[in-house]
Amino acid sequence: MNREITENGESNADMDRRAFLRLGFNGGTALGGAVAIASLSGCSARPLHDPRGPATASAPDHGWHFLTEEDRVVLAALIASIIGPQIPSDADEREAAITRTLEDMDKALHFMGPPNQAEFRQLFDLLEFTPTRLTLARVTSYWPNVSEAQAEAFLQRWRNSSFNIFNKAYLGLVQVTNAAWYGRPAHYQQMGYPGPPAYTYDELPQLNRAS
Amino acid sequence: MADFNLYGKGIDDGWAVEDAARLEADTHFQADVAIIGTGAGGGTTAQILSEAGFRVILVEEGRLYHDPDFTMNEQKSYSRLYQEGMTRATADGGIAILQGRCVGGSTTVNWTSSFRTPEATLNHWKNQHGIQDCEPETLSPWFGNRENELNIQPWTTEPNRNNDVLREGCQELGWDWKTIPRNVKGCWDLGYCGMGCPTNAKQSTLVTSVPASLRRGATLVHSLRAEKLHHNQDRVEYLEATALGEDGVAPTGQGAHRGGSLCGRRQCHRIARPAAALQGSGSP
């Protein structure tokens, strides 16, 4: 039993979502067919929660712009694989780092505008809707139970897929995650970026104010 | 020494700068000319028209960010200063389009490369799009005027190793290469042009023609998205616009056209592209 099916009702928004899913993911005949079957089965991954509602316990007041709770569960399962050994091993630190990354990804997605958001919404729908998760992502566990090894295997499948659409989806996930992670000044050093030249902190008034 | 806090000082001096995010009700502005966009086209047009004595309003969808905001932080800059948070691309996703969305438009975020429009491009505009008066010789004095005003000169700094390899390669192959002309005054060579120039060295419209217009009494309304030109017969009567919130994304009103709106109430007609300027009927 899975939550997507049992908790979903019908609405015009659902119909629009399914039509979009069919139209947008037409990268290959086989894939298009699979998505169409998923769409015709009468279910879609409508967000179960108000995306602006309160989120995780570690950020009770954070208003989410784009990422739903389901999206965040998917991403939380993937972030550690994408970032790799830079993820803290301590459980609390790790959770805090993932939450901060999700917040920054959400902000970035907020600024990306409707066309990009529509594509990411399709992508999350595909990952969250059980039949497409099983057939297209080939992730057999429900996302909260996905292990790091399963996450890594999934990412590599999409990275190396002969379907362009999966390569693109892989890049989308990895780029947004990396931009959020390495955009944090605390993580600059992990990729060997020293930040702006040291002398500018003395010479530029806006950096003096910021410090 | 760089002139810091340009807009802070200007606003103290009485520049008319409105943040549409702070409008609490529908608002009507009146002017001889409303100009949509504050980049290379809009900013320059605003300066010319305000110096010619017209009452000008500059309408900018993006927000006003200036040197105090330019802290060389990629994450903030890309989200705030670019169209679609710097993810705009061609329809097939193959080519990124790094287009500005802020006061100064793309001139605020470009890497200062400032060359004359190539003849092949001008010919394309003329032949494919019917643009008149865009021959190189017709435009030459206009290009010269900008090069002079914006201090556009070939970069004097020695190329780094990467660029030097490209130069050598071009020379070996007999390919054409040139040093990039740049619109800078007193550049610190920090390499953060794309995040907004932190020293005001880049001669973007943000620090040149927009301030010049404001000094001549023009009004800048930022965080305001132009929505619709309302026509009365064959003339544009007013421009309707939507106020965007302090995030620069979400409209402040509930409906698409609620919140602040901007209407130039005089009879207007379109006089220029791509600035889409609106001109009062009493004007030439």
Oligomer: heterodimer
The run of helices and strands of chain A is HHHHHHHHHH
Mean model confidence by pLDDT of chain A: 77
What's the main sheet of chain A like?
Answer: none
**Rg of chain B, nearest Å:** 20 Å
**DSSP E strands of chain A, number:** 0
Structural class of chain B: alpha/beta
Please state how the strands of the largest beta sheet of chain B are arranged side by side.
Answer: 1-6-3-2-10-9
**Second CATH tier, the architecture of chain B:** 3-Layer(bba) Sandwich
CATH topology of chain B: FAD/NAD(P)-binding domain
> Level of helix content of chain A?
55-70%
Q: What's the number of helices of chain A? A: 10
H-E order of chain B: HEEHEHHHHEHEHEEEEE
For the largest beta-sheet of chain B, the strand count, sense and barrel status come to: 6 strands, mixed
The low-confidence runs of chain B, each spanning 5 or more residues with pLDDT under 50, are 254-284
- In DSSP terms, counting alpha (H) and pi (I) runs of 4 or more, how many helices of chain B? 8
Cα-to-Cα separation, first versus last residue of chain B: 42 Å
How many structural domains does the protein architecture of chain B include? 1
Give the key terms.
heterodimer, A: 211 residues, mainly alpha, 10 helices, 0% strand, disordered N terminus, B: 284 residues, alpha/beta, FAD/NAD(P)-binding domain, six-stranded mixed sheet, two-stranded antiparallel ribbon, globular, disordered C terminus
